Amino acid sequence: MQVIATRQNVSVESIKGAVASKIDSAGFTTWIAPLQFSVSQNCLNLVAQNQFTADYVKKEYGNILQTIAADFLLDLNICVKSSLNDVARSANDNVVCAYESFNTKTSNNNKITFNKFITCDDNMFAVAACKKIALGNASFSQLFINGASGSGKSLLVDCICNTTELRVVKMTGGQFVADFARSLRDKTIFAFKDFCRNCDIFVMDDVCALAGKRASCDEFLQLLFDLKNAGKSVVLTANVAPNALIGFDRRLQSLLASGLVVDVAAPNAFVSRAMLIRGGVDNTVANELAKNISGNGHLIDGIINKIKTYEELMGQHVDMNIASHLLGDLMEKNKTPLSMVKMMCEKMSVSFDEICGNSRSRRLVRARQVMMAVLKQTTNLSLTEIGNVCGGRDHATVVYALSQIEKQKANDLILGAEIDEMIKVCK
User: Fold this and answer.
1) Phi, psi of 266 (to 5 degrees)
2) Category of 152 on φ-ψ map: left (φ > 0), alpha (ψ -120 to 50) or beta
3) What is the pLDDT of the chain when averaged over all its residues?
4) Which helix (H) or strand (E) element contains residue 163?
């Protein structure tokens, strides 16, 4: 940082020292040190690289800076640099004020609106909350949508973006991490901050992508604080509820849970059938498929694309006879043990990879034990085979899991009902 003094009887270094003594070291290093200090015409000038920095310094440290300037018989002026050539580049200078997100591609769902989103009793509350956000008159400033993969979370945030007339900044969790790292490398971090905050609604799809990335989580935490204090709306999505997120510290989990948390249920048979018919699938085929593919919106989209492509290439309408060959694996009523496990993963909001992994978290251990108990009741598999399906567990692990479930069912009516429901679905 270059320091310029135009009056011999005033030491800018003395002014900086006085400021440093009144402000905590982290705040001084982050916000005050990068400013260009100068004194001219009885005025202390603090020049920021962009408007966001200038506004933040005025808001957080304006009173302190005003008092210190008065002690030196100076007025205070906090402004934005008008030219990048005014001072030499240095390690702390944010010399690029313009910022544009690296991922500029539009969503594949850029035409979907709430009128096209298929609602049911399970997701009606979440849809109503999203509509309130889109109108800009929500009493809650933060909306956290959680649900299993394929439940329609991304479609809901696309509905918000395509319906509202407010300014929206939308990015995925992975995009936020990549853009944040790029802004640090290119020294455009303040412009990146300004970009994220220059909106009425901030949307992040798949918050889970930030897990374990400490610097990105810290930046995201500060972003949420700033947006909330400014009265902006925030919409976030994840596969699990805030308290079940892995790789996030308690501060961030607590903040994520402080707004309105709603869950979106996976498509049931009614919604699956409606989606298939809307996509042009024959009614009879849709009725049969809906019995076996409910719970996965991504799979439904894949089926619709497959049928459309077949009809386009082969010039034939896909009826029940053709569908039985084209989609034989899905039309088959008999469920495999692997498909049962994957279905239960969706129901319990855990991923199949987590079930097969080595994590010993209470949530995953309980899910594995429930799956083993259900497979024992619904299949003829040996205990060793059940262990293999549930991620390669040995015989002793399965025996222990079954005994634990039996003990817990005696005192936990909810667990018993959950297991009975899954047994009905798997049979």
Assistant:
1) -65, 150
2) left
3) 82
4) helix 153-163
**Would the pLDDT of 92 be above 90?**
no
CB 32 within 8 A of CB 44: no
Rounded Cα gap, residues 61 and 18, in angstroms: 13
Delineate the domains of the chain, giving CATH numbers in brackets: 4-80 (3.30.300.180), 124-263 (3.40.50.300), 269-331 (1.10.8.60), 337-426 (1.10.1750.10)
Q: Which two tokens stand for residue 359?
A: 């994590």
Q: Which residue has the higher pLDDT, 265 or 181?
A: 181
Report if pTM > 0.70. Answer: no
Q: Could you tell me which residues come within 8 angstroms of residue 82 by beta carbon, excluding any fewer than 6 positions away?
A: none
Q: Cα–Cα distance between 201 and 25 in angstroms, integer?
A: 32
* Separation between Cα atoms, residue 330 and residue 289, nearest integer Å: 7
For residue 249, the model assigns a pLDDT of: 86
Beta bridge partners of residue 142, listed in sequence order: 234
Contact 38, 11 (CB under 8 A): no
**367, 240, 420, 348: which is closest to 356 by C-alpha?**
367
pLDDT (tens digit, 9 = 90+) per residue, 306-351? 888 988 898 888 888 888 778 776 665 556 788 788 888 888 888 8
Amino acid (one-letter) located at 336 = T
Note the pLDDT tens digit of each residue in 137-195: 888 889 999 988 888 898 999 999 999 999 999 999 999 999 999 888 888 888 899 89
Residue written as token pair 């497959």: 306
Q: Are 241 and 146 in contact (CB under 8 A)?
A: yes
What separation, in Å, do the N-terminal and C-terminal C-alpha atoms of the chain show?
Answer: 71
The closest alpha carbon to 191, from 256, 106, 102, 65, belongs to 102
- How far apart are the C-alpha atoms of 418 and 403, rounded to whole Å? 17
Q: Which of 148, 158, 187, 420 is nearest to 298 (CA)?
A: 148
Distances (CA, A) of 63 to 59, 75, 166: 8, 12, 33
Give percent helix, percent strand, percent coil of the chain, each to the nearest 5.
55, 10, 35
Q: What is the pLDDT of residues 110-138, one digit of tens each?
A: 578 888 888 888 889 999 999 999 998 88
Give the torsion sign (CA, 273, 276, 279, 282).
negative
Number of neighbours of residue 128 by Cβ within 10 angstroms:
12
